[in-house]
Amino acid sequence: xxxxxxxxxxxxxxxxxxxxxxxxxxxxxxxxxxxxxxxxxxxxxxxxxxxxxxxxxxxxxxxxxxxxxxxxxxxxxxxxxxxxxxxxxxxxxxxxxxxxxxxxxxxxxxxxxxxxxxxxxxxxxxxxxxxxxxxxxxxxxxxxxxxxxxxxxxxxxxxxxxxxxxxxxxxxxxxxxxxxxxxxxxxxxxxxxxxxxxxxxxxxxxxxxxxxxxxxxxxxxxxxxxxxxxxxxxxxxxxxxxxxxxxxxxxxxxxxxxxxxxxxxxxxxxxxxxxxxxxxxxxxxxxxxxxxxxxxxxxxxxxxxxxxxxxxxxxxxxxxxxxxxxxxxxxxxxxxxxxxxxxxxxxxxxxxxxxxxxxxxxxxxxxxxxxxxxxxxxxxxxxxxxxxxxxxxxxxxxxxxxxxxxxxxxxxxxxxxxxxxxxxxxxxxxxxxxxxxxxxxxxxxxxxxxxxxxxxxxxxxxxxxxxxxxxxxxxxxxxxxxxxxxxxxxxxxxxxxxxxxxxxxxxxxxxxxxxxxxxxxxxxxxxxxxxxxxxxxxxxxxxxxxxxxxxxxxxxxxxxxxxxxxxxxxxxxxxxxxxxxxxxxxxxxxxxxxxxxxxxxxxxxxxxxxxxxxxxxxxxxxxxxxxxxxxxxxxxxxxxxxxxxxxxxxxxxxxxxxxxxxxxxxxxxxxxxxxxxxxxxxxxxxxxxxxxxxxxxxxxxxxx
Length: 704
Prior knowledge:
By secondary structure, this protein is α/β, with parallel strands linked by helices. The protein folds into 3 domains: 3-357, Glycoside hydrolase, family 3, N-terminal domain (TIM Barrel); 365-546, 3-Layer(aba) Sandwich (Rossmann fold), CATH 3.40.50; 590-702, Immunoglobulins (Immunoglobulin-like, Sandwich), CATH 2.60.40. It has 21 helices and 26 strands. A 6-stranded mixed beta sheet has the order 11-16-15-14-12-13. A 5-stranded parallel beta sheet has the order 4-3-2-1-10. A 5-stranded mixed beta sheet has the order 18-26-25-20-21. Helix 4 links the parallel strand 2 (68-70) and strand 3. Helix 6 (121-137) runs parallel beside helix 7 (167-182) and helix 7 runs parallel beside helix 9 (227-234). The protein starts with a helix and ends with a strand. 52% of the residues are buried.
């Protein structure tokens, strides 16, 4: 037998064995769940479907019943609470401790929008694994992450927590985070249960106002907003969190189409779904329930399994006993929660080793990883006259701006248990490389660190303006008026409208909020130790009036034309964004050439490869993120002008050339229709390039 055939047979046998083991494990857990469920009272069942904070009065009255606790951290603290619970629990069912470990627990990584700027899912997986290791040592078994909402409106503050505007990139990052958090064994000491949130379409809130309603077509939902959730489910996420928003006038918390039709019937999800904070009782304000009891009944009937904070599911005992809610509905939710507890090993060992945290928290290895990821999260937006990289000696540098020495802001929103005093500021990072002038007047050049405070990024931080604050804008203008070279470092949780800076400042670096090692990473890029390689995961608008703005828009019957008034554009701003999706410069220069297709056409069940040569035409080694886009120009419905369908990070030495190849399959050509997913025969356009605007173009035919 040829070696390749033997290898394939071995792989098939291995996969079959792993599947068999998984089925046996699931069967064993299911059997144990059923035995436990059969012994539980109705109140005990409903307790398992309730998550409270340990400081809530309702919790004190229900110790031994409550199934999950949020915001209690630390091995000693969680152990103490666990002992108290097990002492009062008739069936000794342990608590599942949950916490928002979004981009790190104690070692803080760049915000997720910044990590998406690496276009490197492996780095996202690494960050999640380290976060899981540290969180697990603090007694946490469940993180409310990853947030996988697609966001095409930067006014929405929670754009900081996701991967930006594109479903393909978002799906890749979502799956990576789930793998990183959960690993291969949920009971392992470096694993926590993941929670893909906020299901679904939360990022499309009306006007970018957090918690706002969402109205959208089924096609947009399926093609844009659901793919990252589907990827998370396919990657094995143990839980999902229902979104605050209503979707087509039904709150996600009680949206049967989302929670049952799609999630469980189509995607075969076996985990459980938790509400967001007080999400069940908020259905009263949504106007679809009059009482907490009615809201709880509607939520659990639609497929919600656990209520966070509002204790609403405790009211369901009356609903069951009155015959308005079948107990079998409660039982199904309890099965899902208990199954998760067995999978994370809570019944085998409900406690945490109180000596472990000191050995695995904020280690040198973890800080090195945080620095490496931060280095690759930054995007060089402008570098006029090759001002960057800066010289390490011979020049006097002033570092100015409200965030120049801010450690707290560097952590960004949702920074877990990260501490400012354990964080490196920009000033500290630059001082580790060169001397910093205390007086701007005596400096040869200026590094201005501007942007937004972390408090106006993240949840409940929607903004009507995306400009720099007035005082920062005045400062920047005064720096430019000095005549000295200025490097602008933008710290923010969203793209800002920096049109004036783009015109007047020589060099601009989008740094986001980079976490514990942010200051060192920024210095590494500014002084050339690292060649920047990040690319925008979101479009940067010229002005807030362009919002929502994204590259994969639908075409118009009157495409934008600057020479024709009666076309699809604004009268008072140039056509297009300030910086397009996928954009990012380097200290070297990359050239694209020699586009090739393996065939001029493919059938529905066939594959086709598309490739191009990428050459490092500069004098520095660098990494380029090569992007692959597809467009269906003639279809039964209008299709986006471009859609990302592949990307690769390629390292090239000066003068080196590599051919980068992408594979086209039918799945990449499908769109949602009344008949489900559909690919139609015809011509397709393709591009390989450095961003969503530039690149080499070709085409092929899809045959019947």
